Each structure stands twice: as C-alpha cells, then as structure tokens.
Amino acid sequence: MTNYTKLPAILLLADGTVFYGKAAGKIGTTTGEICFNTGMTGYQEIFTDPSYFGQIMVTTNSHIGNYGIQKDEIESDSIKIAGLVCKNYNIVYSRKQATESIQDYFQNDNLVAISDIDTRALVRHIRDKGAMNAIISSEITDLDELKQKLAEVPSMEGLELSSQVSTKEPYFHGNPEASLKVAALDLGIKKNILRSFENRDIYVQVFPAKTKFAEMEKFNPDGYFISNGPGDPSVMPYAVETIKEILAEDKPLFGICLGHQLLAEANDIGTMKMFNGHRGLNHPVKNIIKNHCEVTSQNHGFGVIPDEVRNSDKVEITHVNLNDKSIEGIRVKGKKAFSVQYHPESSPGPHDSRYLFDDFVNVMKGELVW
C-alpha cells in the first residue's frame, strides 16, 4: 500500500552542484554514478536492466510512473538502478494492465528517488561536465555530511560489477528440443535477449560471469553469446580469457554491449570511459556492410577506442554511430565472431536491429561467412 509523503530531498553532485526536490520511493540515502536516459517510454525495463547497476538514473521524459508497473515488463528479477531522478513522479497511473504504482514498486524494492527536479537543467549540466558520482538523500539535510559520504564512493572507472549481477548458478532457457543451442556468459544479461533466442528456436544455457570455457563447452553448443552488463571492461580479464579460448576454437560468437567491448579487448583493442555515454532509444547507427541505417536502443558508459579499432588488423568495422562516429559494431577477420555496442533486443526501443539475432543463427548454421 502506498505510503508517500512529499518530504524534502537533496541531490548532490561530485562537483558540488546541489539540486533540491521532493522525496520519492524509499526514504533514505543512495549513491552512484549519475547518468541520463532520453527514452520517452519503457521506464520499468530501464529500472531493471542490469547494465545500470551502480548508477543513478535521470529520466529526461517529464512524466515517470504515469502508466504504472506491470509485473512482466522487466529485464531482470529486481530493480538494478541505484536511484532515480525525475521531474514529475506520477503515483496515480492510467493503465488497466498495471498491477501497482511506481511508489509501491520502489518501496517494495527499497529504491531511493527524488522528484520535482529541473531535469532539463540537470541534464545540461551533466552533458557539459560529464558523468560523475552523486548522492540522493531524503533523510540527511546537512550538505557537509552528504559531501563526506559522496567522497567515499568509488569511480565507475576500474569497477568490476558484472559478477555482482550475474546468475550464481547455471540455468536453461527455452525449448530443450530446439534446433540450435547457445551457451551464454551472463555478465548482466537482459531477459529479452533470452526471449529473442527462444523466438528463433534456440535453447540457451546461461552461465555465471566467471565460468571457464571448458565448462561452457560441456553443453556442446552451436554458438556462444557474451552479454551486456555493468562496469569497466578493462578490469575483466576472466571474461577476456574465455573469449580468447572461444576464438581459438573458431566457434560462432555474438556479443552485445559489454560483450562487444570484451571482444575488442580479446583482440588487443582497448576500451575507454566515455564522457557521457549513450543512453536512449533513438540513436542512429549505420551498418556499413549493408549500407543501411537503423534507429537503436543504447545504454553504455564505456566504449572501444576508435583509433585502435581502425588500426587493427584483426577486426573490421561493421557499424558506426552517426552522431559521434563511435564504433558500434565489429567482426573478427577469419573468425565467426561479431558484436555490436547497442541493444538489438531493445526492450525498450525500436526493433530495427533484431536482424542481428538472425545473422547469429545463420553464422551457426554456416550460411553466413566473411
């Protein structure tokens, strides 16, 4: 049952900037790296996306909660964002399919949030100054105390977070009688990725983040998948080593988001912390192999180093971002391995890029080579 009081709350950024608003969700204090998402819908899928683990989310859409919460619209089993910042926090919702309000949802999952913030001003500030750590509190009003707590929060750069959101035990998804089998390394995998495989008659075994290749190979899969996830790819040697072993055996491999960055790392291409990252549902990407454009769903704060990709003799570029020319897709020369930085499974977002799952099927069947 909703227990909601418009208590004052504070948002403090690492550069000392302060925003005052109203308490939302659980009364308390939370910290994380602040970032913003420009999507106009799909807030529940965003809240539960494991790639957002450790981050405070600013939603640029002015209304959050207006269509309520529906139990099936999730990308993991719990809220993964560290906190929420929004303009209008709508407890009253207008959808028959919804099962509870956003306030009940946040209280049940212990999420601290702040509303009635000028999110336009906040996003402009983050856009100009870059991603940084922040703290939200609806229980502490002393700025010096908040500054002290914020100073203790580690930078996202150098953090290994995937093992914290990964499954602890292997599990299966899909039809055991399916025509193809895929072994998925769970670094923070989204549920719609698994649904996308199931829709293509693929049976998936999902493995914990630090599983060795030899263990995954026992499933006798037709291909391997490296998932999305949170944190810094440059401090994940365990995953890089697994990918190198998959490549050495010349097995079909598909990577998404963090999986894309790790495939680059496995081919001696470095990754970097981006100034702001890409988070939204309308990022234009060009497939330079097929010479067509697609509108994509994105969520990442790290990326591959463009010059190192361009100078590599191991990979070729398949996709580029039309906004900033960053590298959005690669494939490994002489291997059956490819990856994209964005999210073809979307959820939320457009379906322009779901052909990539079909490409992976064709690679596993030997019908697509390069």
From TrEMBL:
<feature type="active site">
    <location>
        <position position="345"/>
    </location>
</feature>
<dbReference type="GO" id="GO:0044205">
    <property type="term" value="P:'de novo' UMP biosynthetic process"/>
</dbReference>
<feature type="binding site">
    <location>
        <position position="261"/>
    </location>
    <ligand>
        <name>L-glutamine</name>
    </ligand>
</feature>
<dbReference type="InterPro" id="IPR017926">
    <property type="entry name" value="GATASE"/>
</dbReference>
<dbReference type="InterPro" id="IPR029062">
    <property type="entry name" value="Class_I_gatase-like"/>
</dbReference>
<keyword id="KW-0547">Nucleotide-binding</keyword>
<feature type="binding site">
    <location>
        <position position="299"/>
    </location>
    <ligand>
        <name>L-glutamine</name>
    </ligand>
</feature>
<feature type="binding site">
    <location>
        <position position="229"/>
    </location>
    <ligand>
        <name>L-glutamine</name>
    </ligand>
</feature>
<comment type="function">
    <text>Small subunit of the glutamine-dependent carbamoyl phosphate synthetase (CPSase). CPSase catalyzes the formation of carbamoyl phosphate from the ammonia moiety of glutamine, carbonate, and phosphate donated by ATP, constituting the first step of 2 biosynthetic pathways, one leading to arginine and/or urea and the other to pyrimidine nucleotides. The small subunit (glutamine amidotransferase) binds and cleaves glutamine to supply the large subunit with the substrate ammonia.</text>
</comment>
<feature type="binding site">
    <location>
        <position position="302"/>
    </location>
    <ligand>
        <name>L-glutamine</name>
    </ligand>
</feature>
<dbReference type="GO" id="GO:0006207">
    <property type="term" value="P:'de novo' pyrimidine nucleobase biosynthetic process"/>
</dbReference>
<dbReference type="GO" id="GO:0004088">
    <property type="term" value="F:carbamoyl-phosphate synthase (glutamine-hydrolyzing) activity"/>
</dbReference>
<dbReference type="InterPro" id="IPR035686">
    <property type="entry name" value="CPSase_GATase1"/>
</dbReference>
<dbReference type="GO" id="GO:0005524">
    <property type="term" value="F:ATP binding"/>
</dbReference>
<feature type="region of interest" description="CPSase">
    <location>
        <begin position="1"/>
        <end position="180"/>
    </location>
</feature>
<feature type="binding site">
    <location>
        <position position="301"/>
    </location>
    <ligand>
        <name>L-glutamine</name>
    </ligand>
</feature>
<dbReference type="GO" id="GO:0004359">
    <property type="term" value="F:glutaminase activity"/>
</dbReference>
<keyword id="KW-0315">Glutamine amidotransferase</keyword>
<dbReference type="Pfam" id="PF00988">
    <property type="entry name" value="CPSase_sm_chain"/>
</dbReference>
<dbReference type="Pfam" id="PF00117">
    <property type="entry name" value="GATase"/>
</dbReference>
<comment type="similarity">
    <text>Belongs to the CarA family.</text>
</comment>
<keyword id="KW-0055">Arginine biosynthesis</keyword>
<comment type="subunit">
    <text>Composed of two chains; the small (or glutamine) chain promotes the hydrolysis of glutamine to ammonia, which is used by the large (or ammonia) chain to synthesize carbamoyl phosphate. Tetramer of heterodimers (alpha,beta)4.</text>
</comment>
<feature type="domain" description="Carbamoyl-phosphate synthase small subunit N-terminal">
    <location>
        <begin position="7"/>
        <end position="137"/>
    </location>
</feature>
<dbReference type="InterPro" id="IPR006274">
    <property type="entry name" value="CarbamoylP_synth_ssu"/>
</dbReference>
<keyword id="KW-0028">Amino-acid biosynthesis</keyword>
<feature type="binding site">
    <location>
        <position position="51"/>
    </location>
    <ligand>
        <name>L-glutamine</name>
    </ligand>
</feature>
<keyword id="KW-0436">Ligase</keyword>
<feature type="binding site">
    <location>
        <position position="231"/>
    </location>
    <ligand>
        <name>L-glutamine</name>
    </ligand>
</feature>
<dbReference type="InterPro" id="IPR050472">
    <property type="entry name" value="Anth_synth/Amidotransfase"/>
</dbReference>
<keyword id="KW-0067">ATP-binding</keyword>
<keyword id="KW-0665">Pyrimidine biosynthesis</keyword>
<feature type="binding site">
    <location>
        <position position="258"/>
    </location>
    <ligand>
        <name>L-glutamine</name>
    </ligand>
</feature>
<dbReference type="GO" id="GO:0006526">
    <property type="term" value="P:L-arginine biosynthetic process"/>
</dbReference>
<protein>
    <recommendedName>
        <fullName>Carbamoyl phosphate synthase small chain</fullName>
        <ecNumber>6.3.5.5</ecNumber>
    </recommendedName>
</protein>
<comment type="pathway">
    <text>Pyrimidine metabolism; UMP biosynthesis via de novo pathway; (S)-dihydroorotate from bicarbonate: step 1/3.</text>
</comment>
<dbReference type="InterPro" id="IPR002474">
    <property type="entry name" value="CarbamoylP_synth_ssu_N"/>
</dbReference>
<feature type="active site" description="Nucleophile">
    <location>
        <position position="257"/>
    </location>
</feature>
<comment type="pathway">
    <text>Amino-acid biosynthesis; L-arginine biosynthesis; carbamoyl phosphate from bicarbonate: step 1/1.</text>
</comment>
<dbReference type="InterPro" id="IPR036480">
    <property type="entry name" value="CarbP_synth_ssu_N_sf"/>
</dbReference>
<dbReference type="GO" id="GO:0006541">
    <property type="term" value="P:glutamine metabolic process"/>
</dbReference>
<feature type="active site">
    <location>
        <position position="343"/>
    </location>
</feature>
